[in-house]
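Q: What residues go here?
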């Protein structure tokens, strides 16, 4: 199979997340936010917050490894994904 790139996300363990355990609140939120209303809210938030986040990212500089895109928002400065990815690749090589 193909090896995922370090910027790709991996599926979370939905069974351990209370929002995915099928409760009334999670079903209600999923129903209300899935569709036109959810898209409306997402677009409003994106329009308002993305420019603000981009301005702050410029102030932090490229070494901060902040990611702002339509698919991902990452604001913490200490990004361990490359390190973890290298260790994961090494562990795959050791198993072969």
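A:
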């Amino acid at each position: 199979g193909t090896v995922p790139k370090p910027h790709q996300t991996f599926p979370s363990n939905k069974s351990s997340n209370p929002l995915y355990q099928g409760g009334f609140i999670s079903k209600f939120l999923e129903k209300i936010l899935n569709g036109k209303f959810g898209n409306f809210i997402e677009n409003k938030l994106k329009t308002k917050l993305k420019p603000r986040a981009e301005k702050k990212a410029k102030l932090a500089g490229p070494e901060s490894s902040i990611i702002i895109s339509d698919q991902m928002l990452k604001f913490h400065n200490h990004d361990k994904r490359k390190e973890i990815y290298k260790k994961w690749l090494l562990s795959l090589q050791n198993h072969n």
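A: Context that may help when evaluating the design: Residues 36-60 form the longest helix (25 residues). The CA atoms of residues 6 and 85 lie 6 Å apart.
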